[in-house]
């Protein structure tokens, strides 16, 4: 069994943002292997975040962002469970990052459930027309594949985060739920672009 030093725990804490005892426990479980400990923390963190997702998030902030030149503006309501967290710098920074992302990536809905069915029906018709002439089973798979791709592009929670494209906005929220310790939800947003 590997000896777990304080410097190993601190290094893991710096890399993950997890608590000291969680980091030590993960390193013990991983027998000192830092990468394995990170994987353990991720699994535990996602499980913790999933438990918190059911809790009511009625506090929060309304954040705004105006892009340079004043041609694009965003307003976002980001909710959490307590006013204490709503005043937390990490929470405020998250709201600013999401606003900036919305300005850059132009999502039209927070999640798949919020997308207007009429928009999806039009996209289905276009995809079906593009797949015309192929076998019926293939057409259905092609249409569903194109709809999934379209939803990934227009739904905020599924878009790759502009500051770290290896992470979606949904994963960014999950990470912040893990580190802040409260449920966090994007309630709504509006994006204005000059002339639209």
Question: What are the main properties of this structure?
Answer:
UBA-like_sf, protein biosynthesis, three-stranded antiparallel beta sheet, alpha+beta, globular, Helicase, Ruva Protein, domain 3, single chain, Transl_elong_EFTs/EF1B_dimer, elongation factor, 54% helix, Tetrahydropterin Synthase, Chain A, Transl_elong_EFTs/EF1B
Structural category is alpha+beta
Q: What is the string of SSEs from the N terminus onward?
A: HHHEEHHHHEEHE
The level of helicity is 40-55%
Main sheet characteristics: 3 strands, antiparallel
Instruction: Give the CATH H-level superfamily of the largest domain.
Output: Elongation factor Ts, dimerisation domain
> Looking across the biggest beta sheet, what order are the strands in?
1-2-5
What is Rg?
A: 21 Å
- In CATH, the architecture of the largest domain is 2-Layer Sandwich
Distance between the termini: 63 Å
Shape annotation: globular
The overall strand count is 5
Tally the structural domains: 3
CATH-defined fold name of the largest domain? Tetrahydropterin Synthase, Chain A
The average pLDDT is 87
What is the C-level CATH assignment of the largest domain? Alpha Beta
Number of helices: 8
Organism: Ruficoccus amylovorans
Domain Translation elongation factor EFTs/EF1B dimerisation: 56-196
Subcellular location: Cytoplasm
Region (Involved in Mg(2+) ion dislocation from EF-Tu): 82-85
């Amino acid at each position: 069994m590997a000896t777990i030093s304080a410097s190993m725990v601190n290094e893991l804490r710096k890399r993950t943002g997890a608590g000291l005892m969680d980091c030590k426990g993960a390193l013990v479980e991983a027998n000192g292997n830092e990468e394995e400990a990170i994987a353990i923390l991720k699994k535990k963190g996602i499980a913790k975040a999933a438990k918190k997702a059911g809790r009511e998030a009625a506090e929060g902030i309304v954040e705004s962002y105006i892009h340079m030149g004043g041609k694009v503006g965003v307003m976002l309501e980001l909710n959490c469970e307590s006013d204490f967290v709503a005043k937390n710098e990490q929470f405020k920074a998250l709201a600013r990052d999401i606003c900036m992302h919305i300005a850059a990536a132009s999502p039209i809905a927070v999640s798949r459930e919020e997308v207007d069915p009429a928009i999806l029906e039009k996209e289905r018709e276009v995809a079906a027309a593009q797949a015309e002439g192929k076998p019926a089973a293939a057409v259905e798979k092609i249409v569903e594949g194109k709809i999934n791709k379209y939803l990934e592009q227009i739904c905020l929670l599924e878009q790759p985060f502009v500051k770290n494209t290896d992470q979606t906005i949904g994963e960014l929220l999950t990470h912040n739920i893990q580190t802040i310790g409260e449920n966090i939800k994007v309630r709504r947003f509006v994006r204005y672009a000059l002339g639209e």
